[in-house]
Amino acid sequence: RPEPLVLGIETSCDETGIGIVRGRTLLSNTIASSMDEHARYGGVVPEVAARAHLEALQPAIEQALGEAQVSLQDLDAIAVTSGPGLAGALMVGVGAAKGLAVSLGKPLYAVNHLVGHIAADILAPENGADSAPLEYPTIALLVSGGHTSLLHVRDLTTDVELLGETVDDAAGEAFDKVARLLGLPYPGGPQIDRVAADGDPKAIRFPRGLSKASDLAKHRYDFSFSGLKTAVARWVERAEVAGEEIPTADVAASFREAVIDVLVTKALAACADRGVPRLLLGGGVIANRRLREVALERAAAAGVAVRIPPLSLCTDNGAMIAGLAAELIASGRPPSTLAFGADSTLPV
Ligand code: KG4
Ligand code: ZN
């Protein structure tokens, strides 16, 4: 059976992603981001994101088709993120996908954004022809501006278990908020990363959220970053009141270390508890060099193999959505009926 040609639409946050795959082969991955429009607000504004998707979708689809050198009629299926994410933003993608599927008479696949992040890892040739395919089971840690989730993946198409997630801010959101606090521009992740390079990660001992024995009983795999953000705010306030100069590099490095420590500790705890010697990383925060370094180092010590897809597939994109649908098609999954909507809290 020939491999299915699938167009994927991703609009769950501020990236309008259109991807085209043939089976596991990536043909195009176009991304239009409205990040600049959110910069002056210091975070993604849902209404602004939704409007931007509406404007960006058509040109992005045309660009993707051009890059892949295929036409809409060639497609075997349309795929779209139906959740989780920002409701209004999701609705734009879902509406467009339904319109395309109906007008073209093609099957439509509604897929889960988080599972899509896992599917990013199977797309060739971005991963290099010699890279081994994703092996199961694996633990997956997905960290972005919109989510922070830990999953146990036994099979991409049939068996993905959510182990835990953030109970308040996402990790990327914490980076963005702390950057703002330190007077750094949005998005804050890369800024904190840059400033922290000259800082001492041990200078200030910031709290590790949900890591006390009493928290672990109920929240072993959950994350919390709002207490950390408040701790940084208090520390800076105190220093200001005392008339001290703020050691921005040390604050940034210590904050970054606290986030990374919790992420890596909990991900490796899941690997150990579940007897799974593999860890897949995904989401835009994976761009953080220190996170990759600490994860690789501590995983190696624990005998866990780490996989990190190329960054263009780690951040939100349509290719991973198309790739997941191609896997679903290969596994014999029937298409979705048109009776689905956008579900901002869609479970895996
Ligand atoms: O996956 P992504 O591109 O999309 C959304 O979540 O919308 O992730 C963006 C997030 C932002 O919060 C940004 O500050 C964070 O990822 N980020 C980083 C770094 N680069 C981007 N966080 C920490 N360190 C970085 N180097
Ligand atoms: Zn995402």
The Rg value, from CA coordinates, equals 20 Å
Could you please say which CATH topology of the largest domain applies here? Nucleotidyltransferase, domain 5
Q: Helix content range of the residues, please? A: 40-55%
Distance between the amino and carboxyl termini = 28 Å
List keywords for this structure.
single chain, 348 residues, alpha/beta, Nucleotidyltransferase, domain 5, 2 domains, five-stranded mixed sheet, 12 helices, 10 strands, 43% helix, binds 5'-O-[(R)-(carboxyoxy)(hydroxy)phosphoryl]adenosine, binds zinc ion
Account of the 3D structure:
The protein has two domains: about 5-125 and about 315-330, ATPase, nucleotide binding domain (Nucleotidyltransferase, domain 5); about 140-310, Nucleotidyltransferase, domain 5 (2-Layer Sandwich), CATH 3.30.420.40. α5 (about 170-180) crosses α6. The strands form two sheets. Strands 3-2-1-4-5 form a five-stranded mixed β-sheet, sandwiched between helices. The radius of gyration is 20 Å and the shape is globular. β4 (about 75-85), α3 and β5 (about 110) form a beta-alpha-beta unit. The mean pLDDT is about 95. About 50% of the residues are buried. The chain has twelve helices and ten strands. About 45% of the residues lie in helices and about 20% in strands. The chain has about 350 residues and is an alpha/beta fold. The structure holds 5'-O-[(R)-(carboxyoxy)(hydroxy)phosphoryl]adenosine and zinc ion. Zinc ion binds near residues 117, 144 and 316.
